[in-house]
Amino acid sequence: MSRRVLAILVLIFFSCEEKPNQFSFEPISVQKPLLVSEIGESLEILEIQTKYPISGTPTILKSDRYFYLFEQGIVTSLHQVSLDGKVLKSIDFGYEDKLNADAITQVILKENKIGVVSRGNLVIWFDENLEELEEEKLPFMANFHYLINENRMISFNNRIDDQEDFDILIQESGQTKKTLHIRKDEYNFVYESYSPFSEWNSHVIFSQAFNDTIYVWDKEGFRPLIHVNFGTNAVADRLKQIQHPLDMLAFFNEKKYHYLPGEVYGLDANRVLFQINEKGNRKLGLMNFETKELSVYPGIVDNSISNMILYFPQFAKDRELFFGISGEQILEKYDRIPDSFKHRLSQDYAESFFIYRLKLKPS
After folding, report:
1. One Pfam family, short name please (predicted)?
2. 12 torsion bin: left (phi>0), alpha (psi -120 to 50), beta (else)
3. Domains and CATH numbers, the chain
4. pTM higher than 0.85 for the full model?
5. Per-residue model confidence as pLDDT tens digits over 152-179
6. Which runs of consecutive H residues, i.e. helices, occur in the chain?
């Protein structure tokens, strides 16, 4: 074998050896939270007053003209809200209605329409007056659908279809693709996620609970983008030991492991934000591709207007992060918020819901 051929083979070997590590990063712990003033260009806070106080944490959606709040708690309701925070219309869903409240799995947006998904595969579309338009059968049964445009959709099965072998289901220009095998040797745990998908750099990124890899769907296909190296703190094969709900509860109570809970937010071409669970504590991982560093923060704090701990965004869109805060949370921290913010609150603010809209600085 000639030296030249040997050199080429050695080069190929080392190139292949290096590939897995190109996207694997060890998290660097940062003790202080991210500050709104550090990452934000501007912050807008909307107080939303619904007829009855919103129970739990509603799903927030934003179209070009409205916000929508979808709550599933004591009641199941969809609220249409103007961009300045005024509630325009609301729909309550009952348990004996055509659209059964128990069957609703998601709400989605398509242009100027809002869709309510029933049982993971049937969407009932409403117009901007919240009048019912039509029904549509979706190509997949899934717990979470992410519509990009008329021709592209990516869906996350998340164990809703027990006949399906794949978690990621893609429809593009009439073609169907499936990827990311379901780990059927692990306990069948279905978790709620507000943002398993996010737009990033004209692509779509995806995070799945207990999977230490964040994926990207781009022109090369659906592939790994970031692997978080948790070392000895990783969950590894622990989920294979779980057989029933009490085992899963014991796992959560152990608080021994680090893992991704399945929430991701594309910020800009150089940055991706995602949630991390460290031994029972939720934190935020910020991946900077320019510096090739993965920093982990305890959360985000608004140090510009309200002095509230925002913890985690619900979703990212168009270089903006959106957070939801209940009036009760503000009431609990009333002594620490500045007078300038107190004067902005309504008399019944404790029964309101607040949307924090943070426009990000360029990286």
Report:
1. DUF5128
2. alpha
3. 27-360 (2.120.10.30)
4. yes
5. 999 999 989 988 999 999 999 888 999 9
6. 3-18, 36-39, 245-254, 327-332, 339-342
